[in-house]
Every structure is written in C-alpha cells, then in structure tokens.
Amino acid sequence: MRGLAFLGVAVALGSLVACGTTSENRSGGPASNTQCKGAGGKYVIGMSQANVAEPYRQRMDDDIRTAAKAVPQFDVRFTDAQQDNSRQVSDVENFLTQQIDLLIISPNEAKPLTGVVKKAYDKGIPVIVLDRKVEGDAYTTWIGADNVEIGRQAGKYVAEQLLPDGGKIAEIRGLAGSTPAKERGDGFRESIRGRKIEIAVSQDGDWLREKGQEKADAILKSNPDVSVIYAHNDPMAEGAYLAARAAGRQDALKFIGIDGLPIPSGGLKAVEAGRLSATLIYPTAGKEAVEAAKKILVDCQQVPKTQTLKTQLITKENAAQVYAKENSGN
C-alpha cells in the first residue's frame, strides 16, 4: 500500500512538472494554451504600434498586413500611439477589452509600457514584442535585431573607413527612453574606444527626420570641426544631410544611418545615391511576428523567448545589389 501511495504522489508531482511553472511558461511558450484552437479557429490579433511617422514603423505594419493575408484565420487590428506612452497604454487596454487572442506590440518606450504588457501576459494572452523592448520577462517572445551589435558595426566602419586617423563626430540619438537608442549608442562607443575619435556632441532626434535636421543644423553651427554624423536611423541621417546641404557642407561631411529600408525613400537608395556613406539593415520583424503568431495560435507550438534577426552593413559597393534582392522576393 505504501508503494502504491508513493507511486501516486510521484505521478501527481510529475503531472505538476509537466504543466510547467510560471517561469517555465515565460521561457518562450504561449502564456496559455486556451488561445490555440488549431487551424479551424479564428483569431483576433491586436498590433500596437509606437507611431507611424517613422517610415520603418509604417513598413513594419505593412509587412504584418502582407504576412497575415496568408493566414486566413487571422484578423489583425492596428493602432498608432503617435509616440505617446499614455496613448499606447490605452490602446493595449482597449485591445484587452476587445478580448484579443494575441498582442503584438512595438513599445514607444520600455518602462512606461512594461506594466500593461505584463497585464496582458498575466491574463493568458500571448505577447509578441517587436524591435523595442520592455522591462522584465512578462511576454512570450521578443523579435528584433541586436542593436548593440549594430552600434558596434557602425562604430567599426567609422573607425576603420571614415576616421582612421581619428576625428570628431556628432551623434543624433533616437527617443531617449527606447531601448534601441541606448543600445545603438553603447555599441558604437565600444567600437571607437581608444581610437582617437571623439563624440563632440550627442542630441536626441526622436527618430524623426525633421527633428534630425533641426538638431544637425544647431550642431553644425556650434561644432564646425565635426566631420561625421552618426544618426540612429536613416530619416535622422537624411535630415542631417539636408541641414549640411543648406549650410553648403554636405561634401565635407559623412553621414551614417540605420534601417536600410528597401523602398525608394529608404536608406538603401540614400546610400546608393551618395547622401549616406553607410546604413545598417534593421529588419522590421513583421513577417517573423506573424510566423510566431501562427505557431502559437494555429499550430499550438512554443516559440523561442528571444528571436534575433540578422543585420548587414550597406555601403556604396553593395547598396544597389541588396536593394534589388530585397525587392525581388527572394
């Protein structure tokens, strides 16, 4: 009898382990299996976007729409927070009221969006975080590129190709509270450390071309010895180029951005045309987000906690080739 009793306890404990603890569920699996109804189900997905003023974010939404068309079970609803943290919190709260089956979010800033993302996750709603991060681990999966490594590659290019003998640069950063801004700055500084390269000035451009142009105009007036402008995205780099052109200094300066969108107004064409010396491709993760949502909701599968996408340095030598490849569908 004691042996049977012990066996019963062991089976019960085994069942508890198989179900998984909260921390195990946070290793990347869906927050709850109740959302997965298989191929016969219908699913409402809420996509909370930080803003659509940036071409990168508009492209992210477009990539999600395109990928979702191939999954007939999906109904994706989009919101635009317009760079307003409170508005984005409200957007997510509204999605929860609508009883969405899954949340995709690209947070405006990390800290202010952490609470509402955790609220959704704790309700059993799978959460896919794109590009920018939140604090903690209360989400199903994060998908994006390694922004520290992107910063390192940008710094390495400046140190080896643009300023091998040293010099002064200006940095136009992204939105202060967003994780890519910090990480792209940190990685860049790692690569130029000990290289006789000085960051003479660093200003926040909030990811916007107009603000990048405004900041660059002031920078060039107060720092005439700057020879390179490193912007945390292509629109701000293009804004800096416009400011330099207005001052008649566009040929004396070099400009670097990040995103490398394969669109006529994107960074690939800006490099090909010579306005930017280089950019780094930063995938939107839109297609990958829909793939993850399908695995969670339709296929009833787990997904990795972190999905890091590849980047690539783009210069005059490969810009046209990469643009053609990105638009060929291959």
Structural topology:
Layout: H1 2-19, H2 22-25, E1 43-49, H3 55-68, E2 74-80, H4 85-97, E3 102-106, H5 110-122, E4 127-130, E5 141-145, H6 147-162, E6 167-173, H7 179-192, E7 197-204, H8 209-222, E8 228-231, H9 234-246, E9 254-256, H10 267-273, E10 279-280, H11 286-297, E11 306-309, E12 313-314, H12 319-326
Parallel strand pairs: 1-2, 1-3, 3-4, 4-5, 5-11, 6-7, 6-8, 8-9
Antiparallel strand pairs: 10-12
Helix pairs in contact: 3-11, 4-5, 6-7, 8-9, 10-12
Describe the structure.
This protein has 330 residues and is of the alpha/beta class. The protein folds into two domains: 141 residues, 3-Layer(aba) Sandwich (Rossmann fold), CATH 3.40.50; 149 residues, Rossmann fold, CATH 3.40.50.2300. Helix content is 44%, strand content 18%. The protein has twelve helices and twelve strands. The strands form three sheets. It has a six-stranded parallel β-sheet, sandwiched between helices. Strands 7-6-8-9 form a four-stranded parallel β-sheet, with helices on both faces. A two-stranded antiparallel sheet has the order 10-12. Helix 4 runs parallel beside helix 5 and helix 6 runs parallel beside helix 7. The longest helix is centred in the first third of the chain and has 18 residues. The N terminus is likely disordered.
The CATH architecture classification of the largest domain is: 3-Layer(aba) Sandwich
Number of helices: 12
Widest β-sheet, arrangement of strands: 2-1-3-4-5-11
Q: Unreliable stretches, pLDDT < 50, 5 or more residues?
A: 1-32
Taken as a percent bin, the fraction of beta residues is: 15-25%
CATH topology description of the largest domain: Rossmann fold
The termini sit apart by 66 Å
Number of domains: 2
- Following the backbone from N to C, one meets helices and strands in this order, namely HHEHEHEHEEHEHEHEHEHEHEEH
